[in-house]
Design a protein that fits this description.
This protein is an all-alpha fold. It has three helices and no strands.
Length: about 110
């Protein structure tokens, strides 16, 4: 078991050391306007899907928590806490997609 752990650590170290060797130089590839256009379109669709399905997830969570509180009013505090935690996690995923979309809009990670 120890030999396997050492082997995995060495492989990870080799991978981390070798990856920068294959990195492209900063000015080597300029992004075409077509690539920039499609990255913006892709970011827009990703944000739309994340917002739509995040909203659906929040609606299902709200319906389930309202039903659970109606069935067992004495557990309303615990159910409400879990519901708010779930909403926070769903909304954080949508915010991450917004962050990636903004990076694709303004930073132009493909050069250019």
């Amino acid at each position: 078991m120890r030999n396997r752990s050492v082997l995995y650590m060495l492989l990870m170290l080799a991978f981390v050391a070798v990856v920068p060797l294959h990195a492209q130089e900063p000015g080597a590839a300029a992004a075409s306007p077509e690539l920039i256009k499609w990255s913006i379109i892709t970011a827009g669709f990703a944000l739309g899907f994340a917002a739509a399905f995040g909203t659906l997830g929040q609606a299902r969570g709200l319906a389930a928590s309202a039903e659970a509180i109606a069935r067992n009013p004495s557990a309303a505090g615990e159910i409400r806490g879990v519901f708010i935690l779930g909403l926070v996690l769903i909304e954080s995923l949508v915010i991450y997609v917004l962050l990636v979309s903004l990076i694709l809009f303004f930073v132009k990670p493909f050069g250019g």
